[in-house]
Design goal:
The chain is an all-alpha fold. Helices cover about 80% and strands about 0% of the residues. α1 packs antiparallel against α2 and α3 runs antiparallel to α4. The longest helix has 28 residues. The two termini are about 30 Å apart.
């Protein structure tokens, strides 16, 4: 259940952060109004709370791993919401970022003698 919880929380965090940033982008760059900005601020706040629910107690590790999810999620958001056409290199970069995230989160616990 822990692996499923980690993945679900990362997906929810990505939707909240990327969605919040997109809403603010729409308000500022596309003149969609202050309601979009307000909703974006709420979504970005929700992102912070969702990230804090991760079972790993180390802020730096959780946010570093989330960075990989953010990279892939941002491209996915662009494809679905904005009709973005990624290049092969976008896909490769997303895969590398997700692999890095998986290594950070799912690697065996370090022994107390390591750095």
């Amino acid at each position: 259940m822990t692996t499923a919880r980690i993945i679900i929380l990362f997906v929810l965090a990505a939707v909240a952060e990327i969605g919040g940033a997109w809403l603010i982008w729409q308000a500022v760059r596309e003149n969609r109004g202050w309601l979009f900005a307000l909703l974006g601020i709420v979504a970005l706040g929700a992102y912070g709370f969702i990230a804090a629910l991760q079972p790993d107690a180390h802020f730096g590790r959780v946010l570093a791993a989330y960075g990989g999810v953010f990279v892939a999620g941002s491209l996915a958001w662009g494809i679905v919401v904005d009709g973005f056409k990624p290049t092969t290199w976008d896909y490769v970069g997303s895969g590398v970022a997700l692999l890095g995230a998986a290594i950070i989160i799912f690697a065996p616990a370090a022994s107390s003698t390591e750095g």
